[in-house]
Amino acid sequence: xxxxxxxxxxxxxxxxxxxxxxxxxxxxxxxxxxxxxxxxxxxxxxxxxxxxxxxxxxxxxxxxxxxxxxxxxxxxxxxxxxxxxxxxxxxxxxxxxxxxxxxxxxxxxxxxxxx
Length: 115
Known about the structure:
Elements: E1 3-7, E2 10-12, E3 18-25, E4 33-39, E5 46-51, E6 57-59, E7 63-67, E8 72-77, E9 86-93, E10 104-105, E11 109-113
Parallel strand pairs: 2-11
Antiparallel strand pairs: 1-3, 3-8, 4-5, 4-9, 6-7, 7-8, 9-10, 9-11
């Protein structure tokens, strides 16, 4: 059974850091584009960062990187702000796409940034 499971969410103070994990079972992640998306209450799901198939890492405001030995993709988030509060989802697709174009989704992990 193909499955993605996110973990690592929680409550963090503004300026703090979290590392989210996206672990796969039933398929190998390195040949897929892996995207992190988020959805805040009352808002549409939006893309955070995406890593193309076989790429090792992508740096933006956050950093996404792979550990192929663990079949896991991570999202390192530093200097978090209150507006980063949302449910974070990882998704896998043949390439980085908008949400409708991704094939497999996890159930999400909640990130709350608050003092």
